[in-house]
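Hi V.,

You were right to ask for the full record rather than a summary. Here it is.
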Amino acid sequence: MSALSIQVPFPVFQDRDGQPLDNGYVWIGEANLNPQTNPVVVYFDEALTITAAQPLRTINGYVSRSGSPAQIYVDGVNFSILVQDSKGSMVYNFPDGTGISASLPASAVTYDPPGAFAVPTNVEVKLSEYVSVKDFGAIGDGAVDDTSAINAALLSVNALGKVALYFPAGIYRYSGGGWLGDGVVITGAGRNATTIRSITASPTDGYLFECRGYGSGIRSMRFDALGTTQTGGSYVWLSATESFIEDFHITNDFNGILMTGSVSRIRHGRFQDGATNATRIRAEGGDTSQLIDDVLMGAQIPQVSFAGIRVRNSAALIISNTSVIQQGHGLLVDPTTSTQGANTADGSVFSLYVNNCFFDNNSGNGIRITAIGTASVVRCRFANVWASSSTGDGVYIVNAGTGIISGMHFESPHIMLNGDSGITLGGTLSDIVVNGGEICQNELGIFVNNTVTDLRVLGVTIGEGGGLLGNTSVGIGFGPGASASDYIVIANNVMIGNGAAISDSVLTGDNISIYGNLGQTPGIWTPEITFSNPGNLAVTYSTRSGNYIRTGNTVAVTFEIVTSSFAYTTATGDLWITGLPVSSSTQVQSYSGDLEFQGITKASYTNYTLNIEENSSIIRIRASGSGVPILTVGTGDMPTGGSVIFRGSITYFV
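Predicted structure:
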């Protein structure tokens, strides 16, 4: 037999007027039957040895045994109960009561949920839906080491499967090693109420919690390491498919979250001060379709973290609505195949989509994309992204290896107030697009330091804009290493207020299109007079200046040369004007422009034009007239003393 303690519907037996029932009658019988005609045996003791005669009598609301209040028991679970007043009139009738047994298992007690269509279950099933870590001895007082209790709780819920483990408000000291099975979710009372405090510099097995099971996750918790400097490991490792962490707060971490599982999610979180050389989020793990959304990371001075978000071996990652402030690098993309962080130089990152994000005030770069060895980064899009106020470049894209960096597209970026360039491009790159947005008040706007194939800069404010000044040095500049860049389009940009708009004189490619840029001032070149064999030519210039504008595949140059002395005795050959800013292309040239001169004497020649041959940086003067052959002006046509004047313009293909 099992002893069942009778739990009446009211704390005491009451009369109809709500007062304690005195000298009343209580009948207990079979469930859903008249207890007067179908009574059950009632006992005064839990051992079910002392029977109580029915009807039971009450004194001042309590069942009386020899004049004293008594507890009563039946051998069963359900029962009916009839309560009468001292005159035998019914106070109430309860046809199906339930008691609680001191020894009865929870699985034997019915739980009837509220609601018209709810399905009854038992108490054991209901309680197992939500397990408290305190059921396993966790204290959560910030003083006791709760590691053993937490890991015991996790082992239990992992065995149950698909169960929530609840951490009530408190501070739980923990050294790690816990893992979550399929569907297991650990939940706190809120990210400012429940704290997991790491008590070891590098957590056991490299993590505090690993979300190892399908759909496992963590929510509404804070992680810190007050008093214990973190030097390795991760607070949370999302290793399983559809694992997640959300509504969290992380501080003092060496690595807050490592995400390697497919379709893993990091959402609605806050990072504050990290440990020295910390990487706050590491997104790694191959073709994973991961998400980072609504994360605020920042307010760390001094900036000792290495990176806010580091993307390594990854594909189809979305980063959205996220702010990374005052870290080392805001977003670092450097491919590798190792989830342990070693630079193996042969990984890849592709299909990265970053939108509505803010990378600001970082000590390195706002966005840094690099590759070495055979590593590649391809098909990445950045939409409505800020990369501002960094000590170095706002955006740094450099290929230092033999792999591929291609398809980096920026739609309406805001890149400003960086210590170096707004955007630096280096190494072998292709398909780089900046469309719209603002690049303002950097040292340089866009700097291309090596060969780029297919660079498009379209409709961007590069210079004064957004309440900011222009770029100090140049809006768009090409360094010496970028001379072979080809398929370049720089068009319809607003380029006001820069030190110079565009510096492109080094470009030698055949497919260069630069046009429609407001504020693009002419470039400067320095013309020089010489002969094909200059001998002892001596020239003193009183005026020597030249300007040029490059539009698409053409360059229009103007120049003025005035000499105060021009003398030679041994020079021979054609007259040359050298110093053109860009050499002509190999295609057949067409000529246009005017020439004014003083100092040429050539009988019977009445027309003089400027000429640039294919693949050349030299201007020649061609003479023509009626009945005479077309010739190039040379030493025989120039004075051997005195002065000469040339003013002219010419447009040619490059």
